[in-house]
Amino acid sequence: MTEEHKAALAQGRRESKAIKGYLEAISVPKRRGRPVTPETLEMKIEALDEKVRSERDLLSRVDLIQARLDAQAALEQMTAVVDMDILEPGFIEHVASYSKRKGISWAAWREAGVPASVLAAAGVKRTRRG
Asked: How far apart are CA 24 and CA 72, in angstroms?
């Protein structure tokens, strides 16, 4: 493997990491039904904690423990801070060359949820193809 090939692979990994991180940050799925807030999750965790302490049936207790752990994980994920001040510049830096290399159009990025202003800042142009 030549040094040029190794450098190209490393560049591809850098681009993919920056783009994937940004897309994950902007791709929070919309939920149906009542909105889940950190407060409602905290109340659910407290209620489950009480049920775990008072439950006598061991199998039911394990189910309650798992439900509490799931609620705690959801709360952690909801309150995790995503630093868009770091992710967006990385995306902007790499998306034009990544798009050209992979043949990804402006329309595909827009459909994936990337704002037009971010694509414009990156120099990704809208074409007839998209």
From this structure: 21
Q: How far apart are CA 70 and CA 92, in angstroms?
A: 35
For residue 65, what are the contacts with CB-CB under 8 A and spacing of at least 6? 52
pLDDT tens, 19-36?
A: 998 898 887 666 677 778
Spatial distance between the Cα atoms of 117 and 66, rounded to a whole number of angstroms: 43
Name the percent of the chain in helix, strand, coil, to the closest 5.
75, 0, 25
Residue with tokens 């049936």, as numbered in its chain: 57
Distance of CA 34 to the CA centre of its chain: 21
For residue 43 the two structure tokens come to 């109340």
Q: What's the pLDDT tens digit per position in 117-128? A: 999 999 998 876
Could you tell me which of 75, 81, 7 has the C-alpha nearest to residue 42? 75
